[in-house]
Amino acid sequence: MHRGYLSFLLALVQTTGSLAKAVNYDWNVTWVSANPDGFSRPVIGINGEWPCPMIEADVGDIVTINLNNQLGNETTGLHFHGINQVSSNEMDGAVGVNQCPLSPGHSVKYRFFADTPGTYWWHSHSMGQYPDGLRGPLIIHDPDDPYEDDYDEEVIITLSDWYREQTPTLMTTMLDPNNTNFAPPLPNSTIINEGGDGHVTVEAGKTYRFRFINWSAMFSTFIQFDSIDMDVISIDASYVKRQSAKQLRISSAQRFDVLITIPEDADKNYPYLVALDMNQDFADPDPPRPLTWTLNVTGQLITDSDKDKSGTLTVQKFEPYDDATFAPHDEESAYGPVDRRWILNFDYCFDVNGYPRACFNDTTYIAQKVPALYSAASLGDNNTKIDAYGQIGAFVVEEGEVLEIVLNNRNPAIHPFHLHGHQFQVLARPESGAGNWSVDVDVNETPPRRDTVAVNPESYAVFRIKADNPGVFLFHCHVEWHVEMGLTATLLEAPEKIRDYKIPQDHLDACDAMGIPTSGNAAGNEDWDDTDGFVTVPPTTYTGSLYTQGS
User: Fold this and answer.
1) Residue segments in the chain with a per-residue pLDDT below the cut of 70
2) In sequence order, which residues have a C-beta less than 8 Å from that of residue 94 and are 6 or more positions away?
3) CA 200: distance to chain centroid?
4) For residues 241 and 447, is the Cβ–Cβ distance under 8 A?
């Protein structure tokens, strides 16, 4: 029996001491007009403003967001990317998995424990919605930061591709039988800090902790500074041993914390280049079409506002530091021995109606009626039966097991993959063309940990986790368009521990408002193997988060 979440939080507060505090936000989700790249369009903001606000807390705090949907025409739901939601799986925010869609005029409360420090971000996890603007930074400060004495100030830099059309329009064009090449929507621009000028005021001789967050819908960004190297200290909220890097490639959903020291004798402003990588494989020596870098932005480290601010940086070759080779700060060894292995083969596919989809193991993800967590909570001893959950790519791992996840990318492009609920160890991520994984491959015995990794074309990656966080967690490509194409699987972690899991009443009310059952199998049937009402074919009309009365 899952104990009440409130009592769990109270126990944590007592454990972490009297300095823990409540951090509360009251948010109305609203439409706003904005022009981050000079062209006005509707975006989704908070309390009538955009860019959206930051969530900021200290380790040990209890964070609460009271969310009210005032969009009128769309449902919503929030995910806190990188927050593992230990004992709070119902707060993970993945619509259709950990909660129902939040319809207009309704509210829910998200509450979680800020247990691990680092750079995170929050965003809508509702049907392709976050590229329309519903996203923001999430920073948890560390009272025991091992690098605290190495920097003077902090700077947040967000990076993104940007589209002038809204998601439903873009998806309707992509999810069409005529799109036989699986062509995704292409962005119109690259933006820094949601349309800022990219200027950062700095002082000579000071060291700054830059928190880079890429929340693109699709594309990675390269970043390089003129005459200044970056010292990486954290990746996806996992500390690493300080490592100098001249250039980084930051994939969608990834974060890098770096230290940048301004020279004592600085007598100029320092340009930095943000280049959007719209190529299939930037490292391909013989690409099928020429490499292009058309959507770039130049920012400036401003040491003197009276000096030239129009400088540029020319990069001769994109050759980023290999982020699979960072050393974990705590020197933790690879988990083992492996108890269970989950092999996922990715490639594009077509559904029975000829629509372009993306598949793991030749099967595309199809959203069901009942959120998978609610099924796991209500099916009793039968919650380990993966067929009860419908076509969501369910995989079961038992409590305490070491799970190895193998991802074979059979596509000729780089793809970023993300796991909810864990920072996984990255044991292997070889270069392009390495082929499928085999049991005798070399692995890193002291691997870095992160929650999102870019897997190279026609190659593989190997991850490991300890199954110590009972819940239902998604594993998916973090190209948002590919999520909408079905490139998602579902990890049922220690399902025996989430039987009779307590779901907050306001979350159940959100389901009632949408007419969605909150118990039973994927279709809401009491018998786990009663498949009547299962969704077995992806819809041919894309609606995304669009809402109509009675939907």
Assistant:
1) 1-18, 550-551
2) 77, 79, 125, 420, 474
3) 26
4) no
Please list the alpha-helical segments (H only) found in 243-343.
none
Q: How far is CA 113 from the centre of its chain?
A: 19
What's the pLDDT tens digit per position in 35-47?
A: 999 999 999 999 9
DSSP-based three-state secondary structure for 200 = strand
Alpha helices (H) along 175-329: none
Decide: 208 and 270 in contact? Cβ < 8 Å.
no
Residue 42: CB atoms within 10 Å = 13
* SS3 assignment for 409-474: ECCCCCEEEEECCCCEEEEECCCCCCCCCCCCCCCCCCCCEECEEEECCCEEEEEEEECCCCEEEE
The amino acid occupying position 96 is G
Inter-residue contact 224 to 273 (CB < 8 Å): yes
Q: What is the pTM of this model?
A: 0.96
Residue labelled with tokens 């480290």: 301
Q: How far apart are CA 300 and CA 36, in angstroms?
A: 18
Ramachandran region of residue 333, left (φ > 0), alpha (ψ -120 to 50) or beta? beta
The count of residues in the chain is: 551
Measuring CA to CA, which residue among 214, 527, 227, 173 is closest to residue 378?
527
Residue 12 has a pLDDT of 52
Per-residue pLDDT of 167-184, as tens digits, reads 999 999 999 999 999 999
Instruction: Round to whole Å and give the CA distance between 142 and 3.
Output: 28
Q: What is the Cα–Cα distance from 355 to 346, expressed in whole angstroms?
A: 17
The DSSP bridge partners found for residue 64 are 24, 111
Q: Copy the structure tokens of residue 142.
A: 């560390």
Contact call for residues 220 and 323 (beta carbons, < 8 A)? no
- In the chain, DSSP finds a helix count (H) and a strand count (E) of 5, 30
CB environment 198-217: b (16+ within 10 A), e (fewer): bebebeeeeebbbbbbbbbb
Q: From residue 527, give the alpha-carbon distance in Å to each of 142, 366, 375, 390, 537.
A: 47, 20, 11, 13, 22
